[in-house]
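Design a sequence for this backbone.
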């Protein structure tokens, strides 16, 4: 049994692959405000007793001793009462039962730990060794810390998260305002057949920044759980149409293609995005490019021309300027009479 235990420990400690974003999200949802577990650990914090809670799995079974078996339904009140004991509490993997209480954790002490307190060291090591979730409630530090595998996460006060989320929302609203201004300016210049590349680059810049900032807000929303409904709704409003608009501009101006340009742009930091030359390079354009004729995907979609018809127009007439100058006879080889009338009517509307 002892050899088997050491083999399991060695195998788990070697498993240090980076956590996936979705995995972190799922863990944070388990402790978001409104959940029974969050209510329980906040109750332990308020009771000033401290506590150590571990989610059970097949590997945890070999990493504690002593205490007593409970095997009862999990409720916040029961966990708060059991938290008054010195030992750790073991919950079932699905967090629906309290399995053991007042146990002594015995993780491998050779596993590295940056923590100073005994409780925090045990939690960090058990999380790494057993690939599970461990939560410490510290009465001295007045904080709740979650450990999961190689992740350490300090759980913040709900009001603090709301304040931070509100601040990010305000920044996002300003970015969206500038984004819409750039979009209107590009619309106007393209329809006047004098589009400046700089305006297109500014629209891409602001759009990518908006999407990047939204990721921070999405993390706050996960932390807030049910308390983040209003923030989530406002974020949805602000992001509406942004990604689609950016993609359409890239399709119109990039020489590398939408997919490749988006991938390169996603690698740029905020500071790198501030330099329009960097964005220009992501589009595969030369430094002296200023006036480039857009293909027309963006404007054609806005005036109601289908993606299929727009593709035919762009393939045969190359760019938006040529398409806006089309006459009936130019379209006869490619479309039926009814479709020609429809396209010409839509083009005529934007010329007015």
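Sequence:
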């Amino acid at each position: 049994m002892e050899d088997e235990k050491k083999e399991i420990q060695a195998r788990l400690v070697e498993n240090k692959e980076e956590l996936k974003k979705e995995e972190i999200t799922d863990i944070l949802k388990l402790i978001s405000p409104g959940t029974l577990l969050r209510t329980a650990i906040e109750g332990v914090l308020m009771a000033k007793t401290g506590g150590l809670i571990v989610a059970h799995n097949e590997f945890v079974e070999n990493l504690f001793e002593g205490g007593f078996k409970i095997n009862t339904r999990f409720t916040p009140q029961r966990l708060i009462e059991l938290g008054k004991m010195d030992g750790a509490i073991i919950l079932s993997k699905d967090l629906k039962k309290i399995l053991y209480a007042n146990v002594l954790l015995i993780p491998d002490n050779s596993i590295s730990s940056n923590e100073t307190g005994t409780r925090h060291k045990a939690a960090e090591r058990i999380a790494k060794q057993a690939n599970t979730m461990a939560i410490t409630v510290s009465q001295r530090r007045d904080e709740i810390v979650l450990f999961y595998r190689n992740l350490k996460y300090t759980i913040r006060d709900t009001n603090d998260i709301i304040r931070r989320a509100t601040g990010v929302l305000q920044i996002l609203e300003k970015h969206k305002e500038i984004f819409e201004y750039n979009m209107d300016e590009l619309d106007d210049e393209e329809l006047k057949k004098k589009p400046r590349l700089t305006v297109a680059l500014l629209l891409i810049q602001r759009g990518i920044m908006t999407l990047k900032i939204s990721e921070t807000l999405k993390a706050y929303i996960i932390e807030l759980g049910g308390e983040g409904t209003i923030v989530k709704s406002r974020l949805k409003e602000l992001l509406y149409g942004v990604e689609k608009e950016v993609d359409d501009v890239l399709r119109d101006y990039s020489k590398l293609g939408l997919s490749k340009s988006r991938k390169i742009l996603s690698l740029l930091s905020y500071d790198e995005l501030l330099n329009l030359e960097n964005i220009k390079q992501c589009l595969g354009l030369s430094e002296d490019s200023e006036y480039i004729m857009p293909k027309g995907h963006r404007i054609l979609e806005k005036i109601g021309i289908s993606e299929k018809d727009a593709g035919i127009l762009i393939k045969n007439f190359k760019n938006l300027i040529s398409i806006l100058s089309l006459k009936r006879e130019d379209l006869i080889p490619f479309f039926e009479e009814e479709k020609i009338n429809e396209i010409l009517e839509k083009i005529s509307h934007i010329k007015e």
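The longest helix spans residues 158-191.
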